[in-house]
From TrEMBL:
This is ABC transporter permease. Keywords: Cell membrane, Membrane, Transmembrane, Transmembrane helix. InterPro entries: ABC_transp_permease. The chain crosses the membrane at residues 36-57, 64-84, 90-106, 113-137, 143-163, 184-202, 233-255, 261-281, 312-331. It is a multi-pass membrane protein. The keyword Transmembrane helix applies. Its main location: membrane. It is found in: Cell membrane. The lineage of its organism: Bacteria, Pseudomonadati, Pseudomonadota, Alphaproteobacteria, Hyphomicrobiales.
Amino acid sequence: MSAPAENASSREAGAAEESRPSLAALLLDPSFWADWASVVGLVGLVIVFGIAQPVFLSVANLQALLLAAAILVVLSIGQTFVVATAGIDLSLAAAVMLGAIILGLVDAAGYGIFLACVLAVAATSAVGFFNGLLITAGRIPDFVVTLGTLSGVTGLGLILSGGEPIMVGSTFLLRLASGSFGPFGYPVWVAISAVLVAHIALYHTRFGVHLLATGGQVESASALGIRTNRVKIAAYTISGFCAGIAALLLVARIGSAEPQINTSLLLNSVAAVVLGGVSLFGGRASILGPAIGALMLTALVNGLTLLSVSAFYQPLAVGAIVVLAALIMRYQK
């Protein structure tokens, strides 16, 4: 190599070295914390709770924590697809309840657990499709539509069940809840599979490109030929589908279909999305971030429970973390 070429290479290497921020500058950069909020939060909670209560880091507790987080991870994935279009799905928890009740009713009628599972997921997917159709064709704000669906689906579930729990004693669901493969239980593998499939769909398919384009600027996306209405309907249908999978995991875990809406599932799914760095204005999303956010929220509740902190304070802690994360998100690059 000639001398001028060597000097040019040295100058380029020096410029690259200078362009790299120092560790101190990186830690003082708000955008760093915005991009890594869920990871930093999860690591911080593990360290704090591990020191305060060593049982937190026991194998048994970590396995229980992962099992508890599986449902929220699946729901946060569905919510991510909706939020990526600059929308929100407030009917998730009600859809989970409806799916659980339909599963219980079909199984109790003697049609078999597999048909019951299929119909449960189909029903929740139909709820999502209905939401997307009303939002796009009816030109009604997503907040209003999904809020109305929340109430309507809750009422439908109560009517179908008569307000009474439906016991589900399926061997298949019992194995799903208690079985394991390797170090993880089956619900954890379901959540991992959902993360992988959703990641591929979002980042390695045309649909994912169209989804983010629709959320980023719907008018520009339409001008480019993207059928934005179809994209939004698909996003809400995916959210409903994830609610159906979560319903299966929930019934398998508790052994019955409860006609009660669990609002914490809805609130925590939105919280996990915020913690995961997904822009509430659409156009920016990830799958791993919300999944880690769901783990973080589950670890927070688990750790507070082990420390014997009153359940009344746990929602307060979750709310404080979510608001803090939302403030940090303002500095996202």
